[in-house]
Amino acid sequence: MSTAIDDDLWSAVGDPTRRRMLDLLLADGGGTSTTLSERLPVTRQAVAKHLVVLDRIGLVHMTPTGRERRYEVDEAQLARAVAKLSAVGATWDARLQRIQRIAERIQRSKPG
Q1: Looking at the whole model, is its pTM more than 0.70?
Q2: Which CATH code, of 3.30.420.40, 3.30.43.10, 1.10.10.10, 3.90.1570.10, is assigned to 3-109?
């Protein structure tokens, strides 16, 4: 993934409403902005805007169904996103462990 895609990914999954939408879409096998808005504390228009963001990054894909659009999670793209986010998490875990070891050495070297 490129830096721009990474930034878009972080932005997309950084929003708790979008994460909840992904959960609902996965649990229900898909949905529309109307069905999602019935289960979220936001308007149908807000849901539609969130879905545009998720669609742009490739986490969901849309199929026209009559007058509405049905969205489903792209599980392959979600798996790639999870792997990318996990790799970043592992990098930060390693950095924090190094900082902790440095802090412990400093603490042990203090007199008294």
Answers
A1: yes
A2: 1.10.10.10
